[in-house]
């Protein structure tokens, strides 16, 4: 009785060859060669399956020459190539000083322009005020003039009435009493 | 905690330059007692003005565990603007470009959050334009807060006593009023 060997390999041929005596060695060789060929064929066929993998090469949009869509890419998505990821810190004193100098110059300019504008506005306002004052003065002086002239005329009349009280009664007589008038409309 | 980026530095300096003049450069080059220079650090969107040795030590503390360090200057809003806090007063007051000195009777109304009216102004820096950042001081030169001019110096002279000369932005009364939110996020 042949010793029972535990089944180790799953292939049938393997078990057969181990259990049977070496009488049909040619057959076995044939089988082996066939299996070897098969294996070789299988092995060869494996690299043959490579080319379809090659087709999976990913082309960039540039290579394809696809016209680009006119769309907005969010700022978070945009990644400039060749640039370092993350924030760029300003920690050295020189770069901070340059930023500060820029800011200072900017502010100085702003303040200067503000002051200039304020000064110009002030000048315009002053000129306007002066003009208004001059106009007021003119108006007042004209008024005074007319007042004076009226006063003078009044005084002259008074003087005249004082100096010639007796000579006048006659010319007053021809003056008719005012007619009564009626107006329509 | 990290250093500021380029744009953040520019925004910060632009804001600081509203109140200070050219002497803002002393903030970067200030080496009074020791050779330790001061740096700006950002932590939880708040900007701190810190001694560099202290900033280096603070790197050993995890970001979520670090509440605050150095002098808080203000915070960056989500839109990228910068808001100065009252805690920045000690930094900007010595370098202030324009100042308003408030009479003793105007100190309390200002410290309770009111604007500075003309009747309360004791002294005023000459040639201050409109809408310019100013540091508000008591008559004994104690900085009380900062704000923005409502009128230029020339216009203030013509203003009635109840007219607002300076809009309040921050005052030291906030240390009590905003005690809960000033240092914690």
From TrEMBL, chain A:
Keyword hit for Protein biosynthesis: no
Gene Ontology biological process terms, A to Z: intracellular mRNA localization; mRNA transport; ribosomal large subunit biogenesis
Chief location bin: nucleus
Record-linked InterPro entries: Loc1
Record GO cellular component, one term: preribosome, large subunit precursor
Keyword Nucleus: yes
Subcellular location: Nucleus, Nucleolus
Biased composition (Low complexity): 1-23
GO molecular function, one term: mRNA binding
Basic residues: bias regions: 41-57, 176-185
Region feature Disordered, mapped onto this chain: 1-88, 120-185
The protein's assembly and partners: Component of the 66S pre-ribosomal particle.
Purpose: Required for efficient assembly and nuclear export of the 60S ribosomal subunit.
UniProt-recorded name of the protein: 60S ribosomal subunit assembly/export protein LOC1
Organism lineage string: Eukaryota, Fungi, Dikarya, Ascomycota, Pezizomycotina
From TrEMBL, chain B:
CDD domains: Nip7_N_euk, PUA_Nip7-like
Subcellular location: Nucleus, Nucleolus
SUPFAM superfamilies per UniProt: Pre-PUA domain, PUA domain-like
Pfam families referenced in this protein's UniProt entry, alphabetically: pre-PUA_NIP7 (PF17833), UPF0113 (PF03657)
Annotated GO CC locations: cytoplasm; nucleolus; preribosome, large subunit precursor
GO molecular function: RNA binding
Keyword Nucleus: yes
GO biological process: assembly of large subunit precursor of preribosome; maturation of LSU-rRNA from tricistronic rRNA transcript (SSU-rRNA, 5.8S rRNA, LSU-rRNA)
Key words of the record: Nucleus, Ribosome biogenesis, RNA-binding
Coiled-coil parts of chain: none
Annotated ranges, domain PUA: 98-173
Superkingdom: Eukaryota
Subunit structure: Interacts with pre-ribosome complex.
Protein purpose: Required for proper 27S pre-rRNA processing and 60S ribosome subunit assembly.
Similarity comment: family membership: Belongs to the NIP7 family.
Protein name, as recorded: 60S ribosome subunit biogenesis protein NIP7
Taxonomic placement: Eukaryota, Fungi, Dikarya, Ascomycota, Pezizomycotina
